[in-house]
Amino acid sequence: MKASDQHLNEAIRQLQQVPLVKAPYAGLHSTADKNNNVYIGANKEGLITLAIQLLHIAVETDERKIDQRHAIASRLDWINHHSDIPLDYIEVREPSTREVTVVGSSLKSKIGNIGIVLVLLGVIVLILLGFFFIGSIGWDFVTGGFFH
Predict the structure, then answer these.
(1) CA triplet 78, 80, 81: central angle to 5 degrees?
(2) Which of 28, 58, 111, 145 could form a disulfide with 85 if both were Cys (CB 3.0 to 4.6 A apart)?
(3) Residue 40 belongs to what H/E stretch?
């Protein structure tokens, strides 16, 4: 067994120890808009149960013990009882490079965000210094009293 599978099995064991107060509920639903968006509606117990089952699928997929469609669909069939949209199967595959999206922000964007904040802070400080300067020397100096 791989080290990653050991970690997954440990996570499964810990999640199985969480007491479920209510019956698990999870279902796939579509939004009422024209975009045909799909969302998962679930209570906490349903999310825990779903997580356990997905982790089991992850372990079994590496071990090639399962037929992708049949075993996954039968394990997650309980979701279909609460769903507007039936879950047929989960396709276990590696994405193409076009499908991979980076979650989180890169160092470059973090530095860019910090730069923007620093520039805004600098502008605010300069505006406050300008008000202080105008207040300390008098408005006549700025409006031309000094230069005439």
Answers:
(1) 70
(2) 28
(3) strand 38-42
